[in-house]
Amino acid sequence: MARIDLARVVDLATALDADSRGDPAQLRQRDRAISQKLAARANDATARVAAWLDALRAPGPSAGERARAAQRVLRSLLVALGAALGASTAFAVFAYDGSRPVNVMHVIAVFVGVQFVLVAATLVLSLPESWRRRVPGLAALQDVLRLASPGRWQPALRRVLLPAQREALDRAIGLARRHQRLYGEVHKWALLVASQMFAVSFHAAALAVAALLVVFSDLAFGWSTTLTSEARRVHHILTWLATPWSRWLPEAVPPYALVEQTQYFRGAGGFTGAAPHSAAWWPFLLACMTCYGLAPRLALLAFASLRQRAALQRVFSGMPGAADLRDRLDSRWIATAGEGAEPAPRAVPARDHARAPRPPRVRAVRWSGLALGDGEIVALVRAALGSELAGAIPGGAGSGRSDAALCAELAAAGDAPALLVKAWEPPLGEFTDWLSELRSALGARTPIFVLPVAAESALASGSDARIWTRALDAVGDPFLFVVTTDGAA
Amino acid sequence: MTGVPTFAVVGHPNKGKSSIVSTLAQDDSVRIAPEPGTTTECRAYPMRVDGEVQYVLVDTPGFQRARRALEWMRARETHAGAHRAVVEAFVAEHRATGQFRDECELLTPVLAGAGILYVADGARPYGPDFEAEMEILRWTGQPSMALVNPIGGHAHVAEWRAALSQYFKIVRVFDAQAASFETRLDLLRGFGQLAEEWRAPLDAAVTAIAEERERVHARVARAIAELLAEMLTFVAERRIPVGADSDDFRESLEREWQDALRAREREARRAVEQTYGHRVLQREERPFDLLERDLFSIDDWFLWGLNRRQLVASGAAGGAAVGGVIDAAAHGASLLAGALLGAAIGGAGAWWSSSRLARVRMFTLPLGGQLLRCGPAASPNFPYVVLGRALYHHARIAGRSHAVRSPLALADGPGENWIDRLSAEQRRTLDRAFRALRRDRADAADELARVLEPIVAQGDAPTGAAATAVAHG
Fold it and tell me: DSSP 3-state helix, strand, coil percentages of chain A (rounded to 5)?
């Protein structure tokens, strides 16, 4: 399975976000083409998506890589801070100027006691999200603990980032906020990883400083506490603390004599100089710091890193659009749409038909076999134009020669022609060609009337009327009038 | 005939050629207009599977001068065996002159080997003026089929069938605007009958389209599941200063919460429309359109979601389950009182919370200040309402032909309650999936998508009448 890190997640989220605004058909085509070239196995969906990301990759660092670089910078700063704090703490706790020994109790309190509390807090923070609703008060406790988590200091450090890194990181944070349900786990574990890195560097630095002080300076150890003065009781507790390494590192278990000899009291006459073997405390103290400080943090870091990786893996396969992407990669691309774009329609300027003449007589032509009786034609012509019918002749159903003869006949008759056409059939090129011939035969100013007739022998209206009017407007003849019930001729 | 099966959709202008192409190619970018001559050039619609062309539909301009063209051809006719050569000579002679531009354009793919799909309008009367164009097509000698597309009704379908059967071996009625998905596939399979060598590629193409439809159902199910996941868990938050009266912010936060959910619902609808290839779909936003009625119009909720009886039954079942656990813990000593009491409490709770939208709550922040939070949606009916609306919208989109250019009007109600059509098992699975979504479980949306897939497929069941085929030997 491909390894998924923050960079991969951010890059995939960015790519899918851009795709969500794309044309699904084009995306399908693109991704299927990429898929057919992918070397990754078909049954490893994560690897295929990762390979798809690589195929889409543009030159230069990606947004995800910038976000990862920003995260590394911030985590490095946290590590440096942790190391500085750890070293300072060790210097303070192991400070010895000869006036008073290094108090073993201080070392145990800082590097064991406090760590127990902090590790417990970390464990509370890492409890599953669903427990927040089930355990009363857990949500509030986690919210408060999160405020103290070093991982939360990262936003304050972002000023040190390059602008491009800052932008990439902000984008990643924006994504997490937008899809809280999905990214909640990643956010939680990323925070814990950062905190554990801080803690590991703290303990590692403290341990290193303590070791250096042991090697390069003469430290004297003693113990002093208000709680008890019984050396046996303290020895019992220390032996219990040393249990984890007592079998294979017996010299790191303080003997009772050492405990008894190195007890001291403050005040006049309390500390009279280092006990003869007080330096023998150091193996025990370094072992304590390693076992109770560094080791748990290393374990928590490993655990949080594993959980973070698992959460990133889940986000990678579950983010919005990821399932659609897998679908695009793994299913055949089916395309049925047309090639190229439709040519733009020709714009026809609308004409004003209101000022049409009203000739006293017209000669009707029944075009293309329109079945109308003479009586119906008379009534139609009278209703449409207020004209008398000079005669009715058929046309548009025979040969080109007969159409030409019809033009000559109409020109010779001298009456304005009224062309009765089937309204339900659109005007064809054949008809407009013949209109041009008729215009040539009649002369430029003789009105020609076109009367689209509906199936029930009435003048056309509605869409049929509009079709005829618009189509014949395109002819551009100012003395050609389409007569319908929608607009007077 | 070799190469990819190609079909030229030809006929008189304005008889629905482009509608048929638009429907079969599932492409709503095809220009369909009442004006004649809208199509001026041939446009190819190749059907590709992984880039490999399976068949090609060609939309062509209508015949404009068929009578004159046939007159020209008849003047050069010698014998029936030379008819095709005469048509080829016609195209060769007139291609450059532009005198028979439309005829040359539409005959070119036919002469190149395309099958002929001659389209007539069954709502308009047949006339002898169509015979010239049918005769020209017959002269080409190409395999052919006639499609009666009843654009505005079936008044003249019988008349057309009788006339078309004189010229074409196969005559089918195909309503491009109302054809169901199965009817479209059936017609495509029919194209394979035109020539023996076209049958296998057409069958393969139909199989690929049918498989793709199943994947479309899965995509839609995912889109709806994602929608539900977001709508059931969405909360709107606003920080308010210490001491400020939360009532001043409550109303605007509620409005913000509702607006965000409305926007998300619209986004999901667009995704579903695009999944079905409706890219330029317009929506008629009329107040009486059901889906345009507000998502939060609670009076309409029983139309989309669970009715009161179902709500109470759902609540009672949940309560009884909890009570049953107590009975089991008591080893039956409670005499099922736990289950009965649980059912009563669950049922009553579901009744009373049925119209509750979302709670607005105030939280005190650890470092000072207050947070006002609205949501998530509290009503047990809300997921059913969202799902009911989404499924209704899906059914309208799935059944909508790509040839329909009118805005999507959703005035008709969903009719019978969609929940009644679910099996008891589907209801239980849905209830479980909604509970998982409310608990914000990471894989809940995927699980819901799996549950929804068959329900979505049910919404795409064939509704249109199957195309009628009349074969003439």
Answer: 60, 10, 30
